[in-house]
Amino acid sequence: MQAPEKTDRELITAAQAGDRAALDVLLTRHMGRVARFGSRMCSNPDTAQDVVQDTMLAVVRHLGDFKGDSQFSTWLYTIARRACLRKFRKSKFAPEREESLDAGTAHDTTLVDRATPPDERAEARELDRALRTAIAGLDPQSREVLVLRDVEGLSAAEVAEVTGANVGAVKSRLHRARVTVRSAMAPLLDGESARAQATPACRDVVNLFSQHLEGEIDGEVCRSMQAHMDACPRCRAQCDSLRQTLRLCAMQPAEVPPDEVTRVRRAIQGFLDSQAPAG
Ligand SMILES: [Zn+2]
Questions:
Q1: Distance 169 CA to ligand 1 centre (A)
Q2: What is the mean predicted confidence (pLDDT) over 4-33?
């Protein structure tokens, strides 16, 4: 039987005591998530790679200060977010967009199972690309909230901790971002009924549904929303496509190409060697 995997906490304690192997396991374990966060936050691949390396080096530098009052992953995203902000500031906070929708298709196998038939594979790639483009089109504040909550799977309270905003602000940004991303995905996800003209009774059902998913609306509002959805194919279909969009967000893979892992590891080794006492 294999020894059980060490928990983050165990690895952190060992790494804080100078165990380089434990540090390596810890960083490798979390590198994929940082890479995913970085690549959704800055769609320029070079910038995203820099974010991974900057984040990992900052973790190594400040691990001694990590007290464990928060989850290691929350701390990690806080550092990664700061690394992203520095990149944004350098580019005058201009949103970076993908240069072309076709860029990166050759090696873009994200979301695609090799066993999937070619048609479905093409469709999955198209959905994945559309989702990335939709996320890249959000303003940076909305983008970070949606990525942390719906792609990285943090709770709204954890997103608030990472971004330094209050939970209420996080949630209202989240709902707006979801509505925007769903609309951007609509041409690929929506059927005929979702495109029907809204009636006055439709109100802001997608936003409301998003609030419902966060457990924010009370019984009365929930019942009236449900009654409306039962009677309105348009709103039902739009909420379905929000659900699908969120499923796609949650399925975004957290992988780092092997040569990128090697590059980051080498940078960390170099840093640790430079810190080691001479002799
Ligand atoms: Zn409706």
A1: 26
A2: 94
